[in-house]
UniProtKB/TrEMBL annotation:
PANTHER family: SWIM-TYPE DOMAIN-CONTAINING PROTEIN, ZINC ION BINDING PROTEIN. One of its GO terms (molecular function) is zinc ion binding. This is Zinc finger protein. Residues 576-610 form the SWIM-type domain. Residues 109-120 have a biased composition (Polar residues). It comes from the Eukaryota. InterPro entries: Znf_SWIM (IPR007527).
Length: 691
């Protein structure tokens, strides 16, 4: 048996699992000293919380360990520290002890003078759960090795002073009572109730809903099934008393928030002279959604939101459920606006995901900002990168509708704007298209001023991105735009205008009220509860609404596709007209589209055109095919060049196969045959392209 003086020679144990318990550790009994005969072990100090969580999930004796006593010292305060001397000393005790009130109706135990080792007396409000449990352990952050923690397990069994089990399934007296289970509700239920409270569900409705759920699965089987009105009232009190402005300077508030919510922060870098501010937020629920919907599917970015109004813009990563609704799975607030600093937070986020599931891999990453470093995204996510034009389309169409009153002019301008982006052969053709557009519509002064100031300096960047990346289809545009409208409605409310420049307000709103709206939407979708509340809280995307329009309600003349009409689903005597159908820059005369939004009628026509294959092949697809045909008919004479060409063709074939898989999953439109009707090709622009 080693002596206490030898503890620094013990191996440092760091189990690979996210949370671990005493069962995962090899314990050593020490001889002599105050801890003589106790089990001890060394672990990294940063993993103490993981150990405490693991110990609380004991199957036979579910427990919750509270901090009974804590002491701290400053470095340099001890001239000759002991080998087990500490910088921090923390005593953890099972919440079912140490007092025992099982045999007392008055709330005072048989030995009213008994006090725990910390010197604290009885705790009013917790006497009903005190069952004399002596299970406790001590954690010392070693003075001479601050990065190590010495765990001293004084009593590993959940027993009372007689040595008998005092709670859990091994305690016969606890059978059928709450003492069979953990003393407190789980974090999962806590988040569920808090989300319900944030979205406005009343206490009575929460209790009634919870009771129905417990009855539905056959009665209580865990502590969560004993949720009481007092539990909910306590959470109401927490919400009511919560405050975001903890300091006049929101920089200090953010630092405090990060310290208190480390489990929800995957990356944080404070502002310095040389480095920008970055805060990456992902709750446990968001992590689970990213694992569930992001694997073998797509991840999309919604970047630079609030660039003009917030102190720092907001970037959101989104996944998509079966109804193509966008779900925010990570928020990044950064002072770097150009997208060149994504490596700092993207790599830690992916590492966090793959720590939970090493096999996790998305099918595609969809970016809406061409300033993002494509190589960084590919290296981090190990997947194909697509370009999404929702931001370009929305900005151009909204400005067009605002600055031009003639609907015919709006139609022609939107068609020419689409041609600018699809000048994918070279930059000179894009420049020619821009010049032609500006000459034709020179009289539209307001829009031209906006276009020159906001977009002309960046048009080359977008055209280059169009030449090198495949473009996502209208379904994804609709999903991302729907999220944009939801976050805009929540955050850009004028009553919050005084707080827009505070980062702490943005963090608080995102992680409480806004987060709860999406939690409710998913919970309602999975269980069927609170559907009325869900429908009134978040807008559904146009793609999902388009699926409810029958094909027979689309009046499409394949001999003349300049316009298509869709019968209204609410007023059968009304039909809406879509100009430039099949393109990202289609226009509809319905009220929703006249606000610059992507409406369900445009999406429905786009889906129908794709299914009937009436859209011409993209320029990139034609280039691929032409390269393959040229290589087939004119093989090179040099065998080295021939081998290289064959390898290149094989790679092209693999790329096409990968993109066909994306098309089958709905991310890209299927490639129509080359023999497309020439008249249709003149009227339809491609909705997606192949790389």
């Amino acid at each position: 048996m080693p002596r206490m003086e030898d503890i620094l020679n013990l191996p440092v144990q760091d189990p690979p699992c996210a949370e671990f318990s005493a069962a995962h550790i090899n314990w050593v009994k020490v001889e002599g000293g105050r801890q003589g005969g106790d089990d001890v072990a060394l672990i990294p100090f940063c993993r103490v919380d993981d150990f405490v969580k693991g110990e609380s999930t004991n199957v036979e004796c579910p427990a919750s360990f509270r901090i009974e006593s804590r002491r701290k010292r400053t470095e340099g305060s001890v001239s000759k520290p002991r080998v087990d001397g500490y910088l921090e000393y923390t005593l953890y005790w099972c919440s079912y002890g140490p007092e025992d009130y099982r045999d007392s109706e008055s709330g005072v135990g048989e030995n009213s003078n008994y006090k725990p080792q910390s010197g604290k007396g009885s705790r009013p409000g917790r006497r009903h759960m005190m069952r004399g449990c002596l299970c406790h352990f001590t954690v010392k952050r070693l003075y001479t090795r601050p990065f190590l923690a010495l765990i001293i397990y004084n009593q590993r069994n959940h027993v009372d002073k007689t040595g008998a089990p005092c709670h859990g399934i091994l305690d016969r007296d606890a059978v059928g009572t709450r003492a069979m289970y953990a003393p407190r509700i789980s974090e999962e239920l806590r988040q569920k109730v808090m989300s319900m409270l944030y979205v406005g569900i009343s206490l009575d409705d929460i209790i009634q809903h919870h009771t129905e759920e417990v009855e539905r699965h056959g009665g209580p089987s865990s502590r969560d099934d004993f949720l009481t009105r007092n539990d909910v009232r306590n959470m109401e009190r927490v919400i009511r008393h919560s405050t975001r402005e903890l300091h006049e300077n929101d920089v200090h508030t953010i630092r405090t928030w990060v310290q208190r919510h480390q489990k929800n922060v995957f990356y944080f870098r404070d502002t310095s002279v040389t480095e920008s501010f970055v805060l990456g937020i992902q709750t446990e629920w968001q992590l689970q959604q990213m694992l569930r919907y992001g694997h073998n599917s797509s991840i999309a970015s919604h970047s630079n939101f609030g660039l003009k109004k917030f102190k720092f813009p907001l970037c959101t990563l989104l996944v998509f459920d079966s109804c193509q609704n966008a779900i925010p799975v990570a928020w990044v607030i950064t002072s770097c606006f150009n997208g060149q600093d994504i490596h700092s937070w993207m790599v830690p986020l992916v590492e966090r995901i793959r720590t939970k599931d090493p096999r996790w891999k998305p099918h595609a990453f969809i970016m809406d900002d061409p300033s993002f470093e494509i190589s960084i995204i590919r290296d981090a996510f190990q997947c194909r990168v697509l370009l999404c034009l929702w931001h370009v389309r929305r900005s151009w169409i909204r400005s067009l509708l605002k600055n031009s009153c003639n609907f015919v002019v709006q139609q022609e301008m939107s068609k020419h704007l689409g041609r600018i982006l699809y000048c994918t052969r070279d930059i000179s053709s894009a420049v020619d298209a821009v010049e032609e557009f500006m000459q034709i519509f020179v009289d539209q002064c307001a829009f031209m001023e906006y276009f020159k100031d906001r977009w002309l300096p960046r048009i080359d960047m977008w055209v280059n991105a169009m030449r090198t990346l495949p473009v996502a289809n209208q379904e994804l545009n609709a999903a991302i735009e729907s999220y944009h409208l939801n976050v805009k409605f929540k955050l850009f409310n004028e009553q919050h205008s005084v707080s827009w420049l505070r980062v702490d307000w943005l963090v608080h709103t995102l992680t409480t009220e806004f987060h709860s709206l999406y939690w409710l939407a998913q919970y309602s979708e999975e269980t069927g509860y609170f559907r009325n509340l869900k429908e009134g809280s978040l807008s559904t995307n146009s793609w999902y609404r388009a699926l409810h329009i029958p094909d027979v309600d689309v009046i499409l003349d394949e001999e003349d596709l300049r316009i298509v009409r869709v019968i209204s689903q609410t007023d059968r005597s009304l039909a809406y007209t879509i100009w430039n159908p099949g393109s990202e820059f289609s226009l509809c005369d319905c009220p929703w589209s006249r606000l610059g939004n992507l409406c369900k009628h445009v999406i429905k026509v786009c889906i129908l055109c794709r299914n009937r294959q009436v859209a011409r092949p993209s320029m990139a697809a034609q280039t691929y095919r032409q390269a393959l045909l040229s290589l087939l008919h004119n093989p090179p004479d040099d065998p080295i060049v021939l081998n290289h060409a064959i390898l290149h063709v094989s790679r092209i074939q693999q790329d096409i196969k990968s993109l066909e898989d994306l098309s089958n999953s709905g991310l890209l439109q299927p490639l129509p045959p080359l023999e497309t009707n020439g008249h249709l090709a003149d009227n339809l622009l491609p909705s997606s392209r192949l790389q």
